[in-house]
Predict the structure of Ribonuclease T.
Amino acid sequence: MHDLNELNTLSSRFRGFYPVVIDIETAGFDPRTNALLEIAAVTLKMDNHGWLGKDKILHFHVKPFPGLLLHPDALAFNGIDPCNPLRGAVCESEALHEIFQLVRQGVQVNGCNRAIMVAHNATFDLNFMQAAVERASLKRNPFHPFVTFDTAALSGLVLGQTVLAKACLTAGIPFDNAQAHSALYDTIQTADLFCELVNRWKRLGGWPLVDRE
């Protein structure tokens, strides 16, 4: 039998993984040739009763890495003007360093082994992050290199929806399309969605697992 307090931890709930919600806005679809323009991260916490919620938030506007392409259609879609001096943008390495520092602290405090990315259509965000990590020559990436929690797939299973806005609305989470495609807004909405999916499974009796000994 497991102690209930032991089960109500991020480490026990996610097999030693520390889930961190990420959203990245870009200037195209190719992580090798198109610039990363915005990144946000939301860490998660679990209360003593096993309910998952948002914890800390980081958000950065990012300067396009020199030589990478800015696709006009992508900029029109997300509404980002990379040349706007009011963006307060930082370089990729600075944004990643700050996020990774927060994530490593969370991994340690929560007794986890490593972080795992939570994202909507997570392969896209993971590929852009890994390309930026390579450009910045960062040696200590706290995220698992290929395992993710994809809220598009999870929402398709639980809610019958795969689009972020529709999944949120189906789950009872308000969604403002006017704010969509901002990394900060989309990350917060994805975090709320992931927490709802995990907590809904708990409310339905799916967690903690029943010992069958």
Notes: The beta strands are 17-26, 36-46, 52-61, 114-119, 143-150.
